[in-house]
Design goal:
Layout: H1 2-44, E1 48-49, H2 54-63, E2 70-79, E3 82-91, E4 94-104, E5 110-117, H3 127-138, E6 143-144, H4 151-156, E7 157-161, H5 164-170, H6 173-180, E8 185-191, E9 193-198, H7 208-225
Antiparallel strand pairs: 1-2, 2-3, 3-4, 4-9, 5-7, 5-8, 6-7, 8-9
Length: 228
């Protein structure tokens, strides 16, 4: 009886190991397929793989205030007045950004700022709580900037900065009006670079039309932010 029990235990162990191997192969193939599709998508939009330069990585980690951040994905496309990046940023605990868009341009001279979308409580039940959490977390690093002269912008976004006066001088009617006509964008900016992330509920990172739209919007924001 003991021999039969031992044999049964061995068979169960082998089945579990076999199932694990099958699942590993299935998910590995799916990961490789998704990666290849993503690479083909970006290539079709004019992007090429970029080397994960440590100096550039440090610039992104400083922007996100996360010194452990590293690139998992990095592609670039040259612009007439800068470089456009598609990237994913991770740290040892997991994902920071699954797919963001960044622009670095010598024509930019930006104050340090963060723009976060407000969650509409009428559309999402916990919207007010989510907005409060964002404010509390970000306020540990930067101060909230109140802009009562731009009420439509204030309905859509929260603005934070460690340079209140610089942001007030930088912000104008054109910038406020542009973002008042958008939703679900997060913008991180400082110096000659900014990052845009799209948190639309229907956002699909591998949707060609949506990614093209986000790239176009990033270039619009570059034109909006450039020194005149």
């Amino acid at each position: 009886m003991n021999g039969e029990g031992s044999q049964l235990t061995t068979w169960i162990a082998l089945l579990v190991i076999g199932a694990g191997v099958v699942l590993f192969l299935v998910f590995s193939r799916r990961f490789i397929k998704n990666r290849q599709e993503g690479q083909a998508l970006l290539k079709g939009l004019g992007f090429v793989p970029a080397s994960p330069d440590r100096a550039l990585e440090e610039r992104f980690s400083n922007l996100y205030r996360n010194r452990y951040a590293f690139f998992r994905e990095l592609y670039q496309r040259r612009l007439p007045d800068g470089i456009l990046y598609i990237f994913s940023l991770y740290n040892p605990d997991g994902v920071i950004v699954s797919r963001g868009i960044a622009i670095i341009s010598g024509n930019l001279s930006l104050p340090s700022l963060k723009i976060f979308p407000k969650i509409d409580p009428n559309q999402f039940g916990l919207g007010s709580l989510a907005n409060q959490i964002i404010e509390r977390v970000v306020s540990t690093v930067d101060e909230k900037v109140e802009l009562p002269e731009f009420p439509e912008f204030n309905k859509k976004y929260q603005l934070f900065s460690g340079d209140q006066e610089g942001v007030r001088r930088f912000f104008n009617d054109r910038i406020a009006d542009y973002f008042s006509r958008t939703a679900f964008f997060t913008i991180l900016a400082e110096g000659d670079m900014f990052v845009i992330e799209d948190y639309s509920p229907s956002s699909d990172k591998n949707d060609l039309s949506l990614l093209s739209q986000n790239i176009r919007q990033a270039i619009e924001i570059l034109n909006l932010f450039q020194r005149k």
